[in-house]
C-alpha cells in the first residue's frame, strides 16, 4: 500500500464544495488517473466477455470446430485473468484515493482548528466539527473512490453500445436511446436528495452539539435531577434526525427504484429485439447470446453510474461542511501602534452605531446575528470601519485589553475557581474587586457553595449553564476594561437573577463604557441608551420605554407579543 501524505496538505480551494473536491482530485491526480485507467480496463474486460462467448458459440459450437472453440476458450481465460488482476489493482488505487482524501481533509480541519484557536467555538458549533469526523470524511473519500468504478462504467456502456451497433444496429440503437433516458429520469431526482442530505447533516450536527453539552454537564444534571428532562429533549431531537434520515432514504430509494425499473425495461427490450432478430435470421445464435450477455452486463455499469451520482451528491454536501470550517477566519491580530486616551467614543460605520463613553448602551437587534456581527467588529474579532476616539481600531495598540467582548461561547479553564475568574491580562485581581464582580453577576451563591479555591473541571462542566454564564460575566467584570461588550449575558439565568444583574450592572460599570447586546426587557429598561438594529443598521435610538411606544418593530422584537408594564 502506498504511504499516505504526511507533509503539508497544501492550500485548499474553498470557493465552493465542488472546487474543494476537484482540488483534492488534482492533488492526487496520478493515483486518480491510475484508478480510472484500471477501472476502465476492469469494466472493459467484463464488457468483452459476451463478445468472446458469442464468437465461441458461432465459430466453435455451431461450426463444430474444436480448435476454434479451444482458441476462444483460451481468449476467455486470458480475459478473465486480466479482468481479475485489473480489479485487484483498481481496488488498491481506489482505497488509497479514499484514504488520502479523507486523511488530507483531517489534516486541513485539524490545522484550521489550531489556527482558529479560541475563535473556533465562536464561529463553528462543536457538533459541526464532530460530524466532519463521524460521517463527512467517509463521503468525501467515497467521491474519490467512485471515480475509478464510475469511469469504467461510462466507458463500458459506450463500448457495449458500439459492439451492439456493429452486430445489429437495432440492438445498438435500443441501448443508445435507453441509457440517456434512464440518466434523464434520474437527474431531477438528485436535487431533492441533495437538499434532504443537507438538512439531515445539519440536524446531525445540532444533535452532536446537544450530546456534547449533555456529556459535559451530566454531573450537574444529576445533581439537580434534570437528566429526564434533557434526555427527553435529546430523544425529541434524535427523532427529528431519524425523520430527516428517512426522508433521505425515501429520496434515495425513489432514485434507485426508478433506475432499476427503467434498467429492467431496457434489458427486456434488448432481449426481445435480439430474439426476434435471431428468429428472422438477421443475427446469428452467437450474436443473440452476446446480445443477451450485453444486456445482463449493463446492470453492473448502470448501477455503478447511479451509485456514483448518489456518492457525488453526498460528497458535495460533506464538502460544503468542510468548506464552511476552512473558510472561517481567526480573530484579527492586535498589531496597532496608536494609544489614544480613553475613555472615548466608539463608532461602527457599517451599522451607524455610536457608543458614548461612560454610558451603558444596549444593542437590540431584530436578528441576533446582526448584534453578534457588530460586537465582533467593535472588539476587532472581525474587520470593519470602527473608530475609537476618532482613531481607526486597526491602528490602536492593545485593543484586546481596552475593548473586551464577552460571549457565551467563552470557556472556563480548569484550575481553582479563583484562577478561572482571573482575566488573562492586567495581573491578578484583588479579593474585593473579585467579590464586587461576583455580586454584580449574581454569582455569590456559587462561590459560597464551593469556595474560591475549589477545583474547576475543564470548561466548568460541573456547573449548570446559568452558573457558567454568571461566572463568565464575573470574570469579564473583574477585568474592568475601558469598553466591555456583553453578548446575551443573561440568556441562561432566571428572571429574578437577571433583574438583580440588570440593577447592579450600571453602577458597577460607572465611568466605564458598556455595550450589552440583548433583547431582554429587563436589561433594556436599565440601559442609559438603546440602539435598535434591523438588517445590520441602527434604525432607532432612545430609551427603552420610548422605543416601545414609538417603534412597532422594536416592541415586537423585545416583547414577543407580550405586554410589558
TrEMBL record:
Residues 320-560 form the ABC transporter domain. The keyword Cytoplasm does not apply. It is found in: Cell membrane. Its main location: membrane. Keywords: ATP-binding, Membrane, Nucleotide-binding, Transmembrane, Transmembrane helix. Pfam families: ABC_membrane (PF00664), ABC_tran (PF00005). This is ABC transporter ATP-binding protein. It comes from Actinomadura keratinilytica. The lineage of its organism: Bacteria, Bacillati, Actinomycetota, Actinomycetes, Streptosporangiales.
Amino acid at each position: 500500500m502506498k504511504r499516505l501524505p504526511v507533509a503539508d496538505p497544501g492550500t485548499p480551494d474553498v470557493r465552493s464544495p465542488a472546487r474543494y473536491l476537484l482540488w483534492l482530485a488534482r492533488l492526487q491526480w496520478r493515483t486518480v488517473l491510475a484508478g480510472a485507467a484500471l477501472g476502465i480496463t476492469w469494466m472493459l474486460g467484463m464488457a468483452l466477455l459476451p463478445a468472446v462467448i458469442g464468437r465461441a458459440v458461432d465459430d466453435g459450437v455451431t461450426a463444430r470446430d474444436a480448435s476454434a472453440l479451444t482458441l476462444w476458450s483460451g481468449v476467455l481465460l486470458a480475459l478473465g485473468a486480466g479482468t481479475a488482476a485489473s480489479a485487484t489493482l483498481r481496488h488498491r488505487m481506489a482505497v488509497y484515493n479514499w484514504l488520502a482524501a479523507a486523511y488530507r481533509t483531517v489534516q486541513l480541519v485539524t490545522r484550521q482548528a489550531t489556527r482558529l484557536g479560541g475563535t473556533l467555538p465562536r464561529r463553528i458549533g462543536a457538533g459541526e466539527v464532530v460530524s466532519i469526523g463521524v460521517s463527512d470524511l467517509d463521503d468525501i473519500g467515497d467521491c474519490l473512490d467512485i471515480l475509478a468504478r464510475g469511469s469504467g462504467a461510462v466507458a463500458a456502456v459506450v463500448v457495449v453500445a458500439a459492439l451492439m451497433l456493429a452486430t445489429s444496429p437495432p440492438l445498438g440503437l435500443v441501448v443508445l436511446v435507453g441509457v440517456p433516458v434512464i440518466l434523464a429520469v434520474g437527474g431531477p431526482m438528485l436535487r431533492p436528495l441533495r437538499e434532504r442530505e443537507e438538512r439531515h447533516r445539519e440536524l446531525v450536527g445540532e444533535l452532536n452539539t446537544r450530546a456534547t453539552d449533555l456529556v459535559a454537564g451530566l454531573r450537574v444534571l444529576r445533581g439537580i435531577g434534570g437528566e429526564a428532562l434533557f434526555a427527553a429533549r435529546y430523544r425529541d431531537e434524535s427523532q427529528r434526525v431519524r425523520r430527516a434520515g428517512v426522508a433521505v432514504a425515501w429520496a434515495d430509494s425513489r432514485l434507485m427504484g426508478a433506475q432499476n425499473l427503467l434498467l429492467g425495461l431496457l434489458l427486456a427490450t434488448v432481449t426481445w429485439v435480439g430474439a426476434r432478430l435471431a428468429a428472422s435470421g438477421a443475427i446469428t445464435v452467437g450474436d443473440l447470446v452476446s446480445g443477451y450477455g450485453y444486456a445482463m452486463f449493463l446492470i453492473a455499469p448502470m448501477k455503478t453510474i447511479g451509485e456514483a451520482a448518489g456518492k457525488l451528491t453526498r460528497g458535495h454536501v460533506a464538502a460544503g461542511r468542510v468548506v464552511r470550517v476552512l473558510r472561517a477566519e481567526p480573530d484579527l491580530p492586535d498589531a496597532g501602534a496608536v494609544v489614544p486616551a480613553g475613555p472615548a467614543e466608539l463608532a461602527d460605520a457599517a451599522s451607524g452605531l455610536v457608543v458614548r463613553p461612560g454610558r451603558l448602551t444596549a444593542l437590540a437587534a431584530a436578528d441576533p446575528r446582526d448584534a453578534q456581527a457588530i460586537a465582533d467588529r467593535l472588539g476587532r474579532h472581525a474587520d470593519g470601519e470602527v473608530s475609537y476616539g476618532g482613531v481607526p481600531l486597526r491602528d490602536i495598540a492593545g485593543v484586546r485589553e481596552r475593548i473586551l467582548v464577552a460571549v457565551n461561547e467563552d470557556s472556563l479553564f480548569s484550575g481553582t475557581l479563583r484562577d478561572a475568574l482571573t482575566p488573562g491580562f492586567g495581573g491578578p485581581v484583588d479579593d474585593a474587586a473579585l467579590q464586587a464582580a461576583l455580586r454584580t453577576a449574581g454569582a455569590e451563591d456559587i462561590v459560597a457553595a464551593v469556595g474560591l479555591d475549589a477545583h474547576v473541571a475543564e470548561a466548568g462542566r460541573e456547573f449548570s449553564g446559568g452558573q457558567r454564564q454568571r461566572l463568565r460575566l464575573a470574570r469579564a467584570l473583574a477585568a474592568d476594561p475601558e469598553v466591555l461588550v456583553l453578548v446575551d449575558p443573561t440568556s441562561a439565568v432566571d428572571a429574578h437573577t437577571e433583574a438583580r444583574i440588570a440593577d447592579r450592572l450600571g453602577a458597577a460599570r460607572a465611568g466605564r463604557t458598556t455595550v450589552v447586546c440583548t433583547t431582554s426587557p429587563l436589561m433594556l429598561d436599565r440601559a442609559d441608551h438603546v440602539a435598535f438594529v434591523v438588517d445590520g443598521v441602527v434604525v432607532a435610538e432612545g430609551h427603552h420605554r420610548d422605543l416601545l411606544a414609538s417603534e412597532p418593530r422594536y416592541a415586537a422584537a423585545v416583547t414577543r407579543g407580550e405586554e410589558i408594564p
